[in-house]
Specification:
Number of helices: 9
Oligomer: single chain
Order of helices and strands: HEHHHEHHHHH
Number of domains: 1
Radius of gyration: 17 Å
Distance between the termini: 47 Å
């Protein structure tokens, strides 16, 4: 029974490290789907986006079709396919995406208020594009600020709290 619990915990968990290339590719697809949503007014696509974010928050790439494609197909075929970064900031960013897309979906599909959805999806497209094209994760930056303010405890991401663990040259 103990072994089964450990296996379940590993299966239903977010990875401690995330493949940066896969994350950036997934962000690119999110930006594209967001743009398609805005241009076509097909707000049902927000349900697909919200599911993807929720799946990535809960389990990493395991249950997200976009992330699975990024991990299994795209990242493996790129020369720089194993650049890893800490998982907790990425999870935090995914949680923000989940919140934004869920609110946008409820606003547009539940209440018929597409104005709120348009603003939220536009912001999401900008941030996802920054992640995809420039490697700038705004949610990760927010995570770092919250750690510095001690809102998020260091125990959540030891590697994030002490950059010398990841980059030993900074310890000099």
């Amino acid at each position: 029974m103990g072994r089964e619990t450990i296996q379940n915990r590993q299966f239903f968990s977010f990875p401690r490290e995330v493949n940066e290339v896969s994350a950036r590719f997934t962000a690119g697809i999110v930006a594209i789907v967001g743009i398609v949503t805005l241009l076509s007014s097909q707000y049902w696509l927000l349900l697909f986006m919200a599911y993807g974010f929720l799946a990535r928050v809960g389990w990493g790439p395991k249950f997200s079709p976009l992330a699975q494609f990024a991990v299994r197909v795209v990242a493996k075929n790129l020369p720089e396919h194993a650049k890893m970064s800490p998982g907790p900031p990425k999870r935090f960013a995914q949680a923000i995406g989940a919140s934004v897309t869920t609110i946008a979906a409820v606003s547009a599909l539940g209440f018929g208020n597409t104005s709120v959805a348009i603003v939220l999806v536009s912001m999401l497209v900008v941030f996802a594009s920054m992640e995809s094209l420039a490697g700038v994760c705004v949610g990760c930056k927010m995570f770092a600020i919250l750690m510095k303010l001690h809102v998020i405890p260091e125990s959540v991401c030891q590697e994030c709290a002490d950059l010398t663990k990841r980059y030993p040259s900074l310890a000099r």
